[in-house]
Amino acid sequence: MDSISIWRSTLASITPYLLCLLAFFILFEQITYLKKKRSLPGPLLIFPFLGNVISLIRNPTKFWDDQASTAKQSNFGFSANYIIGRFIVFIQNTELSHKVFANVRPDAFHLIGHPFGKKLFGEHNLIYMSGQEHKDLRRRIAPNFTPKALSTYISLQQNIILQHLKRWERLSSQDPLNPLPLRFLCRDMNLETSQTVFVGPYLNHQKRLDFNRDYNLFNVGLMKLPIDLPGFGFRKARFAVSRLVKTLACCAGESKSRLRLGQEPICLIDFWMQELLKELEEVASDSGEVPHSSDIEIGGHLFDFLFAAQDASTSSLLWAVTLLDQHPEVLSKVREEVGKIWSPESDTLITAEQVREMKYTEAVAREIMRYRAPATLVPHIAGEDFSLTESYTIPKGTIVFPSVFESSFQGFTEPDRFDPDRFSEERQEDRLYKRNFLVFGAGAHQCVGQRYAVNHLVLFIAMFTSLLDFRRHRTDGCDDIAYVPTICPKDDCLVYLSKRCANYPSFSSSS
Question: What is the value of pTM for the model shown?
Answer without folding.
Answer: 0.89
